[in-house]
Amino acid sequence: MRRKVFYVLAAPLAAVGVALVISSIVLLFAGSNPLTAYSNMWEFGTRLETLIATLNRATPLYLSGVAVAIGFRMNLFNIGVEGQYILAAIVAAKVGAEINLPPVLHVTVIIVTAMIVGAFWAGIAGYLKVTRNVHEVISTIMLNAIAVSGVVSYLLGVWDVPDESLDTALPAIPESGWMPPLNGLVELFTREIQRVELWGFLLVAVAVGIVYHYLINRTRIGFDLRASGENPTAAEASGTDPKRMIMAAMLLGGAVAGLVGLPELLGDSHAYNLRFTRNLGFNGIAVALLGRNHPVGIAIGAFVIGWLDRASGVLEVRGDAPREIVAIMTGVIILAAVVAYAIVERKRRAEEAAAAAAATAAAKEELEAWQNQQEVGDGEGGGS
User: Fold this and answer.
1) 77, 94, 178, 266: least surrounded by Cβ within 10 Å?
2) Mutual angle of helices 242-257 and 81-98, in 10-degree steps
């Protein structure tokens, strides 16, 4: 049990340690005191309001990480989450602004719309792979560009969106389509939260993580996905259709990707505009790698990256270092984590192989001893 815990904790702890060392060196070269910078980040980052802002940042990162992880579990590299969530957000924002329904139903329609759009856009890449053998990396890169630079611009033109103050924005979603904040729930255990609201979509993200874990580890389709990813030939021989699994993985990943923009849309901006957060899809790849495609690991990775992003603001304010140092820290953590995971996994497999060899040798010795006993018994029986 202790060894298992060691293998779980060794890689992330080593990654954080390496990141701190390298970031300290960069800070020294930049003329800053690493201890002062880290102390200020910790002091600011542990405030209740900063932690709330961290959770708000981590929520879409977590959803993006899960969307990427679904493809990873089948050895599919879906890097099209960026285009999928942006396209889903603008369509969901338009639908949400055009309808007026009771609160729960209104939010449900927006969520379902986003999931359908995300699944449809990801499904195009899946269809190209199973029918024309187009690699998903190529197709999703192209679909990102088409979604962001093509379809979104086209839709804004077709919908005749007014351009006010150089900020093109869709009409706002009525209040019945908003998700209420969770401040009241948090304040039951803490003090009153100032100047920030905890987005209610956090609960949806938690539900997505639970469903993802159950689907991948407790259902037949999850088993088929994992089997197809680990050994497609063996999975096909056992009756699993690999093309169907590719489509399933892309559609499921796209549906989750469609949710990535909704925490901001339903909890803060309530409309799609040019200031809508970008690059959540690409950051989700880092989160999935950092979390090893496990729902809890992805949550930790999303929180770490979200915390670094929010806590780093104090560095510029107090003149400790440029905020870009956090980009270096994040990159080093991810790179170190990937390397550390590979080393730990190699060591674990070597120990398992050694243990298996030792068990085989012990079993062979027991068998030889038993055979010797049988021969001695037969010899004594024949002599009498």
Assistant:
1) 77
2) 60
Any idea which residue has 């369509």 for tokens? Answer: 91
pLDDT tens, position by position, 287-317: 998 888 899 989 999 999 999 889 888 887 7
Percent of the chain with pLDDT over 90: 51
Q: Would you call 102 helix, strand, or coil by DSSP?
A: coil
Q: Which domains does the chain have, with CATH numbers?
A: 1-32+322-356 (no CATH), 47-320 (1.10.3470)
Tokens 């038993």 locate to 370
Written as six digits, the tokens of 21 are 């060392």
Q: Is 76 exposed, middle or buried (0-12, 13-18, 19+ CB in 10 A)?
A: buried
Three-state helix/strand/coil letters over 290-335:
HCCCCHHHHHHHHHHHHHHHHHCHHHHHCCCCCCCHHHHHHHHHHH
CB 118 within 8 A of CB 258: yes
Nearest residue to 271 via CA among 162, 355, 377: 162
Distance, first Cα to last Cα, the chain: 53
Which tens digits make up the pLDDT trace of 261-280? Answer: 999 999 999 999 888 988 99
pLDDT of residue 174: 95
- pLDDT higher for 296 or 374? 296
Q: Average pLDDT, whole number, for the chain?
A: 87
- Provide the 10 A C-beta neighbour count for residue 196: 16
- For 368, half-sphere exposure in the C-beta direction (CA atoms, 13 angstrom radius) is 6
